[in-house]
Design a protein that fits this description.
Elements: H1 3-13, H2 22-34, H3 40-55, H4 65-72, H5 82-91, H6 100-116, H7 129-138, H8 142-151
Length: 152
């Protein structure tokens, strides 16, 4: 336990060790007992604040507050009938939200781009001048090899 962490515990949870987080309480108590003079001022200030909180009366809860909070809370997803509803619940367990919605949108856009940018006609075996330049630059002179095979 470091001094800074013990100061943080005292500031956040007060002077009473039973209010400190259980997993850090034993180490904090050992450190506090080893160096009581370091933390005396912080403990005195925390005790004064704790007493001030104890003296202050808790406000009354307005009637119907719990009901208003529950009404404002989002409703649970209703199970949709059929395989499409079950599939939607598996893919989008929290509804159409980010990131599942963004992933689905990217998938739809990719498939659409692939479909609509595909060539309209089948390859007839002839290369355009641009394709010849690209293949020649890459070392594939397939068109010239094809012409040589036909001539032989």
């Amino acid at each position: 336990m470091k001094d800074e962490r013990l100061y943080d515990l005292i500031a956040a949870y007060g002077a009473e060790p039973m209010a400190w987080p259980e997993d850090e309480r034993d180490a904090a108590m050992v450190h506090l007992k080893a160096h009581p003079d370091r933390f005396a001022v912080a403990l005195d200030e925390a005790r004064a604040l704790d007493l001030a909180f104890e003296r202050e009366a808790l406000p009354d809860v307005p009637v119907g507050l719990a009901e208003r909070i529950l009404e404002a809370a989002p409703a649970a997803h209703s199970a949709q009938a059929g395989w499409a509803g079950r599939l939607r619940e598996m893919v989008f367990p929290n509804g159409l939200r980010w990131p599942a919605g963004a992933t689905a949108a990217a998938l739809v856009m990719g498939v659409s781009a692939g479909i609509f940018s595909a060539p309209a006609t089948a390859d007839d075996g002839y290369q355009t001048a641009e394709e010849e330049v690209v293949y020649a630059a890459l070392g594939y002179d397939g068109f010239e090899a094809y012409i040589q095979e036909v001539d032989e």
